[in-house]
Amino acid sequence: MEMSSVEDAGGEPSGRRPEGLMRVGSGASDVIDPEVGGSGGAEAESGRKLLSSRYKGVVPQPNGRWGAQIYEKHRRVWLGTFDDEASAAWAYDVAAQRFRGRDGVANFEPLEEEADEAELAFIRARSKAEVVDMLRKHTYRDELRQSKQAASTAAASKRPAATAAPPEKERQHLFDKAATPSDVGKLNRLVIPKQHAEKYFPLGEDDAGALLSFEDGDGKLWRFRYSYWNSSQSYVLTRGWSQFVKEKALAAGDVVSFHRSASEEKRLFIEAKARGGAPPAARRFRLFGVDIVGSSINGEIENNKRKSDDYDGVEKIKQQRQAAFD
DNA sequence: CCGTGTGTTGAC
DNA sequence: TCAACACACGGG
Length: 326
Hints:
Elements: E1 58-60, E2 66-72, E3 75-82, H1 85-100, H2 117-124, H3 128-137, H4 140-157, E4 171-178, E5 190-192, H5 194-200, E6 210-215, E7 221-229, E8 234-237, H6 241-247, E9 255-261, E10 268-273, E11 282-287, E12 290-295, H7 296-307, H8 314-325
Parallel strand pairs: 6-10
Antiparallel strand pairs: 1-2, 2-3, 4-9, 5-8, 6-7, 7-8, 9-10, 11-12
Helix pairs in contact: 1-3
The chain binds a DNA duplex through strand 1, strand 2 and strand 3.
């Protein structure tokens, strides 16, 4: 349940202001005059009923916090919950910028091409799933900052970071790693052969705790902490890895395959393949007291269906994978 | 146990 | 497309 500690949305927008475009309706005559029970929560003073938000895409939560959501293709995409209304509204705006472009931004001032060039590039360079993930985990701020920093150092040394929108068709195979028992054990880490690590995921001196983002065949995002362990002289993926092992039912001997978008971008891909060939391991689970055997592929498809993270063309992928399953 | 975010419905 | 509402589910 994610309950990130103290940080909210990853922060408020610095320059943009809340009162911005909030004139609902056409008039512009009457201002919204919040009034809203004073300050904080969505909880109506007396008792049960929740106050609506004056922001688009923001819904009250029973505990006085605020949820953010955006719709795409008749489907709701949940953007997370936030302590304050404005943070939720801001999360909506970020998502809207990615999903619908500048005109979709509805709560605060849209980013300006000139002034917010870096942030726009940051958003454009990421998939919808990635943006949503950052919002839900409240890491948007940090990652934007890191991104800017990386971009500036890159620009200083050589060539400005590639801007480019993500085409996304061709992938270049980087390398495979056959999972060892400890890669899938309790250590929560995957050792990346030094040779490949240094070639494809170079780690700067100062990069104490880098973060690598991958997409799997379902378009699902996987983010791992990536670092070098002096003690064992090895490069490892740590935080986030155990979840991958679990969800993919990864077993020793299975192969983890790393790819990169051919367009020499940032986009990285990760796949789990069973020891011999194509699909990941089958999983057994219990449904209504009956043992069912299904592939993790179907499991993930169902999962996606349930969670409504159908954005970014997962539809196609589902069909592909469904076909592959036959 | 408790909050999240999903299921669902009915407006716009 | 959107938010209101209820509460099942799952993380801690």
